[in-house]
TrEMBL record:
Occurrences of domain ABC3 transporter permease C-terminal (ranges): 289-402
Organism of this sequence: Reichenbachiella carrageenanivorans
Protein's recorded name: ABC transporter permease
Membrane-spanning ranges: 21-42, 285-310, 334-360, 372-392
Membrane topology category: Multi-pass membrane protein
Localization of this protein: Cell membrane
Family the UniProt entry places it in: Belongs to the ABC-4 integral membrane protein family.
Keywords: Cell membrane, Membrane, Transmembrane, Transmembrane helix
Lineage top rank: taxon: Bacteria
Pfam families on file: FtsX, MacB_PCD
Residue ranges constituting the MacB-like periplasmic core domain according to the UniProt record: 21-246
The keyword RNA-binding is assigned to this record: no
Main location: membrane
Length: 409
């Protein structure tokens, strides 16, 4: 009795019990659908997050003042360092020559009112002053108009870029905003461009007005500003090295003690994307757990059905043994039946999971992914479930006494 005959007998048995096979395969399919579907949706959302942060200048680091937390840290009062001055940050930008793009910027206020004619925004608009590289480092695009020119930056022209929310508040639908005059903080500005809509990840830019850095200093009216330096890193693998170079240069400019604490902060902007990546990692674990529990229930159901099948086919087993079938061949037949059923369910589950997962990721993140890894995992798990669920019934069938089996009614 060869292997081909075993496979033929297993398939014949499955075809003879179509309803039972369909129900069992459906249970397996539901488990694999939940597994592949959830993981596919999470992958789609993760891809959307990565794209969003790529558009927002995720491969950047920022040099800024050390933020003091309220109260004490570890029972010890935090040391208050002097702010980064304009001369210091300008000196850094002039001397940091490692082939990367640096931008100097500051926030004048976050509660400005912007006016155009009789229209006024809420007092929650951020006024940001940046140099010519600011848009590039932050990853902002221009939807309408143009960027602020180098000449306007150098001469401190009263021109501005506005965010999408400011545009919608001040101007009616289809009304042109370019070259119109708006006013805020006691000065008038000509709109030269509108920033592309950023959405939830970059919502601050939607509610912002960007002006040349020199103009921002005038708007501050001798008030001390918090200057920041953004550095765009083309190759993320160089991030640590470039951050180290920047730290050394700024410590020299600030005259910090070599080997001592630095009087400023250097933060990798990608850290937020990484934290979101960790969250999606936890979601993957949760999704895998849900799918595993569902598959566990399906495997128990499959094992029960296979045990019933052994009981129903006791006489058949006795006949096969009387004709020379060995216990190994009997075990193989029942294992093949179990694996075929789980693979039928696995195929349906992978296809449904692929469809459901992409529907969810399209609705939530407008992305489409082909989860080759999770599809292979789904088939692999189906194979394992079939082996584990079918082994006990197969072992029981192989141990039946042929004489007793032939007498079975």
């Amino acid at each position: 009795m060869n292997q081909i005959e075993n496979i033929r007998e297993a398939v014949k048995s499955i075809m003879a019990n179509k309803l039972r096979t369909t129900l069992t395969a459906a249970i397996i399919a539901i488990g694999i659908t939940s597994l592949v579907g959830i993981l596919t949706a999470i992958d789609g959302i993760q891809n959307s997050i990565n794209d969003s942060f790529s558009n927002l200048g995720s491969n950047t680091f920022v040099i800024e003042d050390i933020r003091l937390e309220r109260g004490k840290k570890g029972g010890v009062a935090q040391k208050n360092y002097p702010r980064l001055t304009f001369d210091q940050v300008s000196q850094f930008v002039d001397h940091y020559k490692v082939g990367e793009v640096t931008a100097l910027y500051t926030s004048v206020t976050r509660n400005a009112e912007v006016k155009y004619g009789s229209e006024v925004t809420n007092p929650n608009v951020s006024v940001i002053g940046g140099d010519i590289n600011y848009l590039y480092v932050e990853g902002y695009d221009i939807e309408d108009g143009r960027s602020i020119s180098a000449f306007e930056h150098q001469n401190g022209a009263n021109v501005a870029l506005i965010g999408h929310e400011v545009l919608n508040t001040l101007f009616k639908e289809n009304e042109k905003s370019l070259n119109k005059s708006i006013s805020f903080l006691g000065m008038k500005f000509k709109i030269v461009g509108v920033l592309a809509k950023q959405g939830t990840e970059g919502g601050r830019a939607d509610r912002a007005v960007i002006v040349p850095l020199g103009v921002a200093r005038r708007l501050a009216k001798n008030r001390s500003l918090n200057y920041k330096i953004g550095v765009s890193v083309k190759d993320p693998t160089n991030m640590d090295h470039l951050m180290g170079e920047a730290t050394g240069l700024m410590k020299a400019i600030r005259k910090d003690t070599p080997g001592g604490e630095k009087s400023f902060d250097v933060q990798e902007k990608k850290s937020l994307a990484e934290r979101l990546g960790e969250i999606t990692g936890y979601l993957r674990i949760g999704g895998f757990t849900i799918g595993f529990i569902t598959l566990l229930g399906a495997s128990i159901g499959l094992m029960n059905i296979m045990l019933v099948s052994v009981t129903e086919r006791t006489r058949e087993i006795g006949v096969r043994k009387a004709l020379g079938a060995t216990p190994k061949r009997i075990r193989q037949q029942f294992l093949i039946e179990s694996i075929v059923i789980t693979q039928i369910g696995g195929l349906g589950g992978v296809l449904l999971g692929f469809i459901v997962g992409n529907i969810i990721s399209t609705l939530l993140a407008d992305t489409f992914v082909v989860p080759w890894l999770w599809m292979l995992v789904g088939f692999g798990i189906g194979m394992i479930v079939g082996l584990l669920s079918g082994y006990l019934p197969a072992y029981k069938a192989s141990k039946l006494d042929p004489i007793v089996s032939l007498r079975f009614e």
